[in-house]
Design a protein that fits this description.
By secondary structure, the protein is α/β, with parallel strands linked by helices. The protein has 5 helices and 5 strands; from the N terminus they run ββαβαβαβαα. It has a 5-stranded parallel sheet with strand order 1-3-2-4-5, sandwiched between helices.
């Protein structure tokens, strides 16, 4: 299992399934590191061959164009061969930024709901913290698109779902 982060711009083996960790970063706890830890624990015995794309930067050197390009590239990899795991975490108590919470995640979620609706949602899994603002609206829209999977409010459970669907 290899972890890709936004500072990586090299080649990716597109034959190995990719899991993209999609969800809030700004004003959100580092749920991505927790998710990687759980995937690692689950994979100790099975040794499934997959990689993870983690969009959380490990530095403060943020470049929006590079981030958007990297995320688009790795979302496409995961959407074509793997899974996009959407975890909509609650906003944490850090001082608020000057942007609306989870704005990028909400857009990417809508984009991939539409794209995935044409293949029976085989390449996305969606979960939300029960305190995520807007959860009920998103559930209504998922129902409108006939999203066939449950929407867990527990990250560990969502990760097990994704792992078992690989």
């Amino acid at each position: 299992m290899k972890i890709y982060t936004p500072d990586y711009n090299g080649k990716v083996d597109e034959n190995i399934p990719m899991i993209f960790l999609a969800g809030p970063i700004v004003n959100s706890f580092d749920w991505q590191s927790y998710a990687i830890q759980i995937f690692t624990e689950l994979n100790i015995n099975d040794k499934k061959n997959f990689n993870i794309a983690n969009p959380r930067l490990e530095t403060n050197l943020f470049d929006q164009l590079n981030q958007v390009n990297w995320e688009s590239r790795f979302l496409k990899y995961a959407g074509n061969n793997g899974m996009i795991l959407f975890w909509l975490s609650k906003r944490d108590d850090t001082p608020p930024s000057n942007r609306s919470y989870a704005r990028t995640s909400r857009f990417e979620l809508a984009e991939w709901i539409v794209k995935s609706s044409f293949n029976d949602f085989k390449n996305i899994a969606i979960g939300m913290d029960e305190r995520f603002d807007g959860m009920e609206y998103i559930k209504i829209r998922l129902n409108d698109y006939n999203y066939p999977h449950n929407v867990p409010t527990n990250l560990r459970y969502l990760i097990k779902q994704v792992y078992n669907r690989l």
